[in-house]
Structure formats: C-alpha cells, structure tokens
Design goal:
The chain is of the alpha/beta class and 268 residues long. The chain has twelve helices and 14 strands. Strand 10 and strand 11 form a beta hairpin. The longest helix has 14 residues. The radius of gyration is 18 Å and the shape is globular. Keywords: Hydrolase.
Length: 268
C-alpha cells in the first residue's frame, strides 16, 4: 500500500516527555512533507495549544490541517479557515459543571483566548492551561457564564476517580455527548458522534484520499478511534495497553526515542 497521509497525535506521540519535538522527528516529518505527503494533527488540545507544534512542523508552509478538540473542529492551518465545527448542546456545560462540583472534580472549557475553569484550580487544570498555551481564569458562576457554544468540556481529577466516573457519565449523557478519558486524569466531553475518526472522514473527502491510504499514530484513549479507522493504525511504544491492543503496528521506539521517525522510515 502506498500511503498518502500521515495523521499525528501530539502529546506522547510527536512530542517527547518534555513536550518537545526532537530534531530527528521534526526533520523526518519535514522531509515527508517535502516529498508531497501531507501531515495532519489530530489532538484533544484547543487550537492555541496546537499552533506552536504545527508551526514547528511547517504545516502552514505545506498547507495541511489541524483538528483540535478531538475533531470537533477542522482548521486549514495555512489559511486559518475553520472548515468544520460541531459544538456541545448549549445547556450541557452547566449540567457537567454541577456533576463536577458534586463529585469533587475539576472542569474547564474554552473560548478563543482563555481556559475557563468552573472549579478551583487543581494541578491538572493548570497542566491543561499549560498544554493549551492559554491563561486560565476561574469563574465561580461557570454555569451561567458559559452561555455560548463550546466544542468541549474537560473534567480533571485523580485517575482512580475519573476511571470510576467515566462509565457513569457516559451512560448519563449517552444521547448528548461523547464521554471518554484522553489521559488517566482528563475526562473529555465532546459533541455526540464526534471523535478523531469522525473528523478524519471529512478531511479525507477534502483531500481526495482513501482511508486505506492513511496512517494514524497515537498513544492515548482518544486515539483509539482513528487508529482503528486508519489504513494503518500505529500505537506508540509508550501507548496505553488498550491502544496497543487495537493497533496494526506498535513502534519499537517510544516518543522519547523518535518513534514517529521510525514510522516514516518504515512505511513511507
């Protein structure tokens, strides 16, 4: 199979444990794009949290796409045009906020400039703000303040707490949202039927590429859908075991040792 598109998650995949892109990985991705193969980024991050990575990989120069919020948006990175967006029902952030408060976990959402926290800042909310590259602001009246469309809410907490709450919330909001953990300490709420695979269906139509011609690489729970959907689904050596279980290929090298460069050298 001649592959025509490479799709990358960011954290734990294209970046190392220090949230950096190594020189070898960056050069491999640049050379792939120079050969005419587009590279897209699909991430749970807000758009602002993707920009620095996309610029480092020169996606604007080669005219590719970023898919923030686990695919709730698709943005042409060269033109900055949002070509697809799906948002949560307007009433849902307030309901999720009440559940977060009752269960003693954190919750945030996003506007174009800030991470909006509805609970006191915990270490995981601060981590998310750092990843997003935006300031975080606590709004005690989150339930009334967030009266505008948002692409996702993120709940934060200790892994064992979120593991217990995930099936409860997934069942409660089954008809209104996707509920899943992207990291052990992050519980995501995104629009119903939207995930990384869903948005890639739209992108493939735009690019005129078949899914069999696409390689998707990831390490987290939120990468499972696109890894299963891809022609070749790749799990990083450092991936969660559930991710490795559904992958067609597991890298020998982890994200700290240029696993993505390994994929490019082996399959392109």
């Amino acid at each position: 199979m001649k592959y025509k598109l490479l799709v990358l998650d960011i954290d734990g995949t294209v970046t190392n444990s220090k949230k950096q892109i190594t020189e070898k990985t960056r050069n491999a991705i640049l050379e792939l794009q120079k050969s005419g193969i587009p590279v897209a980024i699909a991430s749970g991050r807000a758009p602002q949290g993707i920009y620095s990575v996309a610029k480092a990989l020169e996606l604007d120069k080669f005219g590719s796409y970023i898919m923030p919020f686990n695919g709730a948006r698709i943005i042409n990175f060269k033109t900055e045009e949002c070509i697809y967006s799906k948002t949560l029902p307007l009433h849902l952030p307030a309901r999720l906020w009440r559940d977060a408060v009752e269960n003693g976990i954190g919750i945030v959402t996003y506007d174009e400039k800030e991470v909006i926290a509805g609970t006191e800042l915990d270490k995981y909310i601060l981590l998310e703000a750092k990843i997003a590259g935006m300031p975080v602001v606590y709004h005690e009246n989150f339930n009334t303040y967030v009266d505008f469309p948002v692409n996702k809410c993120l709940m934060t907490g200790e892994p064992e707490d979120l593991e217990a709450l995930e099936p409860v919330f997934a069942q409660k909001y089954f008809h209104e949202a996707q509920i899943f953990r992207s990291e052990p300490y992050f519980l995501e709420a995104t629009p119903k039927n939207v995930d990384k695979a869903y948005c890639l269906k739209h992108l493939l139509e735009i690019l005129g590429i078949k899914r069999e011609e696409m390689i998707c690489c990831g390490d987290g729970f939120n990468d499972i859908s696109m890894i299963q959907y891809a022609g070749l689904g790749v799990a990083m050596a450092n991936a969660q075991e559930q991710v490795k279980a559904v992958a067609d290929y597991v890298t020998v090298c982890d994200n700290d040792h240029d696993g993505i460069a390994e994929v490019i050298e082996k399959f392109f």
